[in-house]
Amino acid sequence: MERENAWKKYDEKALSELEALSCRYRNFLDLGKTERECADYAVELAKKNGYISLDEAIKAGKKLEPGTKLWASPMGKTIMLFVLGREPMENGINIVGAHIDSPRMDLKQNPLYEDTDLVYLDTHYYGGIKKYQWVTLPLALHGVVVKKDGTKINVVIGEDDADPVLCISDLLIHLSAEQMQKKASEVIGGEDLNLIIGGRPLKDTEEKESVKANILGILKEKYGFEEEDFLSAEIEIVPAGRARDMGLDRSMILGYGHDDRVCAFAEMEAIFAIDEVPARTLCCLFADKEEIGSVGATGMQAKYFENAFAELMALTGDYCDLKLRRGLANSKMLSCDVSAGYDPNFASAFEKKNAAFLGRGVCFNKYTGSRGKGGSNDANAEYMAEVRKIMDDAGVSFQTAELGRVDLGGGGTIAYICALYCMNVIDSGVAVLSMHAPWEIISKADLYEAMKGYKAFLLNA
To answer: Each residue of 110-163: pLDDT tens digit?
Structure first.
């Protein structure tokens, strides 16, 4: 069953809304190139939209009423936004959940070294990347350095027009005969992703590594930290530059981190657009560490969501362990993560009848996983029918898809983790071209339909 391109149905009002949403989204991508930056961005917007801190509400200890809006940001790398509903949370809540980490490179803990009058930062790549795509690009540093006294220094180098950018070199074509014979996965090795950050030695110095000494002086004078402070730093290397409209018709957006910030942004816009007291409590969730298995204290396998659920039940005067378990099981969720967009340049990687196409609306993946559905959440047919009705009733353009040909590969999301509570979960997202590349591509229409679809789900599931 072929779905119609969503662009064909838009009137002037819809096109105006779509462009305004796209403009806000590009700004979100530019200011949110790390999970910390995305969380900070969401917290500021939440405050402007009348949300109060869950931690402060717990300290106050007052019973919360329906319509109360709350935010929580565990460790500053995740976000949960809640709107309390009229029904007891034991009946379940409606959740839209995405992740805000993206493939990148991280600095190692002892990254700085000099070699033949060039200074480098040593890196460790994060998530699934094609390593050869990250060389010869302008790159930026984003992150935090925490000194021993607890002082936190925010680092952003390479984004301002006056900033320098950084780069990883590649071997010139004239000497690449051996390199060009290697498999793509071996053309650039993990230990070859070394970031060039300087090449100017100090004058009038006896120091053996005078270029490194010059860089250390710059770091201390301009950014306020020393080499030892890298031990307690989280600095990510990401593509430098802004997200841009793409195509002569400006129908697409080229940017870093569409996976999965496009879904995170769409669900955030959806919950902020709700100004009524809902029947069921609503939740917008941003998770970390999805690209490496949803592990660690900020990954979806941690208990921060379950803990927040329990705290809210207590603040509404209706907590016990059994009610908590019932509430989680009765909840309904869209696991909002991107899907592979059909690319005619690589048609053989897809099964066309079950592929996601740019411009045809928000995508639903009944199951993900790899090959024989390994590692997949597989949504119930009854739940799929319910979601279809919600989308059709709200006039949302949607499509269904699988992540490529059955035997070729696959992928996963946070859906299977949340399904462990026995709640109904289905994957829903935006089709992306060049997924996991430094620059990815989406359709503005799919962003717009995702936002509308997530709002309809929150209010009607």
So the answer is: 999 999 999 999 999 999 999 999 999 999 999 999 999 999 999 999 999 999
Residues 272 and 403 in one domain: yes
pLDDT score recorded for residue 366: 87
Q: Is residue 354 part of a domain?
A: yes
Beta bridge partners of 432: 340
User: pLDDT per residue over 2-17, tens digit each?
Assistant: 789 999 999 999 999 9
Within a domain: residue 1? Answer: no
Q: Within this chain, do residues 288 and 434 fall inside the same structural domain, yes or no? A: yes
CB 97 within 8 A of CB 288: no
* Residue 84 included in any domain: yes
CATH number of the domain encompassing residue 123 = 2.30.250.10
Euclidean distance between CA atoms 100 and 79, whole angstroms: 9
Mean pLDDT of 413-429: 93
Residues whose CB falls within 8 Å of the CB of residue 410, separated by 6 or more in sequence, listed in order: 368, 369, 370, 371, 374, 375, 403, 404
Domain that holds residue 442: 6-102+256-460
- Indicate the residue among 205, 239, 273 that finishes a domain: 239
191 with 282, same domain: the answer is no
| Contact criterion met (CB below 8 Å) for 385 and 426 | no
Per residue in 242-274, pLDDT (tens digit) is 999 999 999 999 999 999 999 999 999 999 999
In whole angstroms, what separates CA 375 from the centre of its chain? Answer: 20
The residue type found at 172 is L
Beta-carbon contacts of 402 under 8 Å, excluding residues fewer than 6 positions away, are: 351, 354, 355, 365, 367
70 located within any domain: yes
97 with 113, same domain?
no
**Model confidence, pTM:** 0.95
Rounded Cα distance between 17 and 25, Å, is 12
Q: What is the 3-state secondary structure (H, E, C) of 328-382?
A: HHCCEEEEECCEEECCHHHHHHCCHHHCECCCCCEEEECECEECCCECCCECCHH
On whether both 111 and 145 belong to a single domain, the answer is yes
Confidence band, pLDDT 50/70/90 cuts, at residue 356: very high
pLDDT band at 405 (very low <50, low <70, confident <90, very high): confident
Domain of 403, CATH number, reads 3.40.630.10
The β-bridge partners of 105 are 125, 237
